[in-house]
């Protein structure tokens, strides 16, 4: 007898990431789990029913989508130098900067924006205004900067420099 997920319903709350892509969720799907990821907070309202996981590429996040579109319209198809000022992140997430400003983006929002830049011809990037001497014992700012760097490098790796030069 095979497992029938319609006979039971489970919810599981956890911090979960994929190692190699959305296919890592296959076991969860086979077990009948319904997932809500933190990044879906911008797209799922109390009136919506969640039936299946919707990959980020198929979502339309409110707020961040407009920022992504504006960046894409501004830079066009040419080579891009991307500079990220760490104080664009709210000091609750990145306090160690020379000019902390409340009301900035969360690290999740910035990650969503960076992932939305897939396909841009980023030839170089930097992260500025990180001041480790002012960081907390938990090193929130340096962790946020490392996460931003990982996201930028991931986008850059998907469009190698050879493709930028060829075009």
TrEMBL record:
Q: Does the record carry Transmembrane helix as a key word?
A: no
Report the domain of life of the source organism. Eukaryota
Q: Which GO terms describe its biological process?
A: putrescine biosynthetic process from arginine, via agmatine
Q: What is this protein called?
A: Agmatinase
**InterPro entries per record:** Ureohydrolase (IPR006035), Ureohydrolase_dom_sf (IPR023696), Ureohydrolase_Mn_BS (IPR020855)
Cite the residue spans of the region called Disordered: 1-28
For this chain, the family text in UniProt reads: Belongs to the arginase family.
Q: Does the keyword Methyltransferase apply?
A: no
Q: Which keywords fit this entry according to its UniProt record?
A: Hydrolase, Metal-binding
Q: What GO molecular function annotations does the UniProt record carry, in alphabetical order?
A: agmatinase activity; metal ion binding
Alphabetized Gene3D superfamilies for the sequence: Ureohydrolase domain (3.40.800.10)
Q: Where is the composition biased (Polar residues)?
A: 1-11
């Amino acid at each position: 007898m095979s497992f029938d997920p319609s006979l039971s319903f489970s919810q599981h709350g956890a911090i979960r990431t994929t190692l190699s892509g959305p296919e890592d969720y296959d076991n969860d799907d086979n077990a009948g789990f319904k997932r809500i990821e933190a990044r879906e907070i911008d797209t799922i309202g109390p009136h919506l029913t969640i039936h299946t996981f919707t990959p980020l590429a198929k979502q339309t996040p409110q707020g961040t989508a407009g920022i992504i579109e504006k960046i894409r319209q501004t830079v066009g198809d040419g080579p891009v130098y991307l500079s990220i000022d760490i104080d664009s992140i709210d000091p609750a997430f990145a306090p160690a900067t020379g000019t902390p400003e409340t009301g900035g983006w969360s690290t999740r929002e910035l990650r969503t924006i960076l992932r939305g830049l897939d396909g841009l011809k980023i030839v170089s990037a930097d992260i500025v205004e990180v001041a480790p001497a002012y960081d907390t014992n938990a090193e929130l700012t340096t962790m946020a900067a490392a996460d931003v760097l990982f996201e930028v490098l991931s986008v850059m790796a998907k469009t190698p420099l050879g493709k930028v030069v060829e075009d």
